[in-house]
Amino acid sequence: MNSKKRNNSKNKNELFVYLDPKFVPADLQKFCKDLKQNQLDEKSFLKKSNEINVFLTNFDLDKLQMNFFLLLIGKRLYNFCDTGNYNLKIYGGDELQKSNIILGWELEKYKFQKFKTVTTEEIGKSLTLVPKDIKNKKEAYFFIRDLINSPPNILGPNEIYHAAKEHLNDDYVCKKITGKKLEKTFPLISVVGAGASKKNKPIFASFISKTKKKRKIFIIGKGVSFDTGGLNLKTGVGMSLMKKDMGGAANAIGLAKLLSKKNLNAEVNLLLCLVENSVSDNAMRPSDIYKSRSGQFIEVSDTDAEGRLIMADALTYASEKNPELIIDLATLTGASRVAMGLEVPSFFSNNTTLSNLLNKASTETGDPLWQLPLWQNYNNQILSNHADYKNIGSSGFGGAITAALFLEKFIKKEIPWIHIDLMGWTKPNKYSRYEGGEAMGIIALSKMIDDMFK
Ligand code: BES
Ligand code: ZN
Ligand code: ZN
Questions:
Q1: 246, 264, 289, 441: least surrounded by Cβ within 10 Å?
Q2: 326, part of any domain
Q3: How does DSSP assign 421-443, residue by residue?
Q4: 253 and 367 share a domain?
């Protein structure tokens, strides 16, 4: 491309992003000469009148990190540009890489202002073209963020159920189980939620796609509307972000919605375990023993390890239906966050073919996920003295792994299963101003499922 061509559309704001040096016009080559390897600074952006050039020709990252970085670039660009309508052109990169820049831009528009008396106006910054599939992803992100950001006095188990119902109504048949029936059929969900007030009673919810198909997928979300830790009460600091403990459920709902737009050759079943983990005279106690849906006896060694208890019964239910794939999403352990930091959810799988497919989808989409092992030699850590299993590992080490091993006890061996332990929360950085609930893993998962069930 030469500079003549570039100047053709004079009256619009032009935004040119160069991923490949061979596309940089001759008169601009000098600007990318002294860019430092893998560094984004002021020199990466060149603004002149109504044209912005962005040079990303100095990046040499592996594919997953490059693709993730392009999402950050989109966010950074949104913050860098003044108000106006921008005609974005990306030179180099594949379709998914290009779409990540656009998605990043769109995501940075998000605001959660429901509880602000003074709100900030929408800033008039837009791209001339946002393709439909990027709008779908954005919608999923915004729904997930809204749900996680909603405070626990407003959003209890029942409100999560209704939000899911409203979001999925067109494509899914909804059902919920509560009360005595829940106690009988999903005893661990019932027990974990027993400490909450009447208004926030536990719920098992299922959403089955309206178009019936032989092939079945189950997606399960941990929906703890607030995690006090129960009688093993968390500290103030430990509790401060625990409205996000329904992040697995929020992501599962967002994923189910994305999948409904894919015309898959599979029936999607979404299961939500909705509870508040609270303190009261009705709350489960450390050392209580309960019979799970699977029949296995579980000792509650720590009431703060509630997520794996509620997920256990839902995993048993999903296994009973013999699906081709089970995926569970949960803000399950602080140990996963310690190992991976906020941005990278850990995942576990009992099937190598499946984990390879997820790794591939994660790399291609730039939606990070990283595998940890289902290290069988740690199984002795969750053996209970007086029951079959206990809900915490005895050593305190490898907490994300012992939690995943606990979940594995409720899956039929032959069913391919992925467990995702995610943070569901993001903090501001040099690319983005946003702090709050965050979607994680759903873009990679929807790509993987799309590839598997086309
Ligand atoms: N919801 C928490 C896990 C969590 C904590 C996720 C912080 C993200 C950030 C979970 O229910 C929990 O409390 N887990 C305990 C388990 C422990 C008692 C074995 C944990 O990770 O400390
Ligand atoms: Zn907990
Ligand atoms: Zn929890």
A1: 289
A2: yes
A3: E---EE---SS----EE---SHH
A4: yes
Reported residue count of the chain is: 454
Ion ligand 2 neighbours (CB, 5 A) are 227, 304, 306
Domain contains 115: no
E strands present in 56-188:
84-91, 125-127, 172-177
The tokens describing 331, both together, are 């803000």
Give the nearest ligand 1 atom to 402 CA: 19
Calpha distance 355→280 (Å, rounded): 41
Shortest-distance ligand to the CA of residue 393: 1
Residues 64 and 188 in one domain: no
- My answer on whether 172 and 86 are in the same domain is no
Looking at the fold, whether 162 and 92 belong to one and the same domain comes out as no
User: What residue numbers bound the domain in which 411 lies?
Assistant: 143-452
295/435 same-domain check: yes
Ligand 1 contacts CB of residue 335 (under 6 A): yes
pLDDT tens for residues 203-235?
Answer: 999 999 999 999 999 999 999 999 999 999 999
Mode of pairing for the β-strands spanning 289-291 and 267-277: unpaired
- Phi, psi for 216 (deg, rounded to 5): -125, 140
- 331 Cβ inside 6 Å of ligand 1: yes
Q: What is the pLDDT of residue 199?
A: 98
Contact in structure between 274 and 202 (CB atoms under 8 Å)? yes
Domain identity same for 28 and 152? no
Q: How far is the CA of 334 from the centre of ligand 1 (A)?
A: 5
Give yes or no: residues 332 and 211 share one domain.
Answer: yes
Q: How far is the CA of 147 from the centre of ligand 3 (A)?
A: 16
- Partner residues linked to 219 by β-bridges: 270, 327
d(CA 362, CA 352): 15
Please give the order of strands across the beta sheet that includes 289-291: 289-291, 297-299, 389-390
